[in-house]
Amino acid sequence: MMDIRVLLIVQDDRAKQIYLDLLQKYGIQVFVSPSFQNLSDDICRHTYHGIFIDLPTKMKALKENRNYVYGLVEKFPVVQLKLNEQTGSPILFHSRVQSGWTLDDFIFTECKNFVPRMIRSDARKDIHLNVLLYATPDDADPERTVTIDLSRGGCFLFSSREWKMEEDVWISIHELSDRNLIRCQIRHVIHWGESMRISGIGIEFSAILEEQQYELSNRFLKYGS
Length: 225
Description:
This protein has helices at residues 13-23, 41-45, 55-64, 66-72, 103-111, 210-222; strands spanning 5-9, 29-33, 47-48, 50-54, 78-83, 90-93, 117-118, 130-134, 143-150, 154-158, 168-173, 182-190, 200-207. It is an alpha+beta fold. It folds into 2 domains: 5-118, Rossmann fold (3-Layer(aba) Sandwich); 130-222, predicted glycosyltransferase like domains (Thrombin, subunit H, Beta Barrel). It has a 6-stranded antiparallel β-barrel. Strands 2-1-4-5-6 form a 5-stranded mixed beta sheet. Strands 3-7 form a two-stranded antiparallel sheet. Strand 1 (5-9), helix 1 (13-23) and strand 2 (29-33) form a beta-alpha-beta unit. It is elongated, with a radius of gyration of 19 Å. The N and C termini lie far apart (43 Å).
């Protein structure tokens, strides 16, 4: 059997042990993080086939930084869990749970067939900057947009255009003193109409001037929650 690695995000110790007892019966590797924020170096060194999320832990994190929570697990197979208050047994929530779906299906079909990837570790804050988004450095008709959130290494931009993973794009940030183009790479895409979330692209800064990085880092530290 292939080596399947999953991440379990749960804060409560009792719930954690019950979830672990359930998952370890499947012979998979389970890594545990008590929160969405402050992921350890060990957690971020591994790639994962899927993520299990404790609902109370998720709801608490959503109050602090909704965009970061959703962006963290974007593009992973996900199952949400909570404990039944009467029985103490875990309840599983998944989009296909009403159609005969089982935990075996999730682990040995969805997770097994998923190309494992690392989880994003950089914190993001709800900072909104005005941006011109270029498909090429000489794009004559850049898209006027805004950042939905910002991290030290990238941002999420609203966009209704069609983009592809790993494409290079260029941005000019209106609020920076230096508005020279910043080369970026698309790390994830939310297509318009795909879900109830804001459409756009998550990008990573791949070529940014030191002065621009310094100014963005100061803004990141000063603003946002």
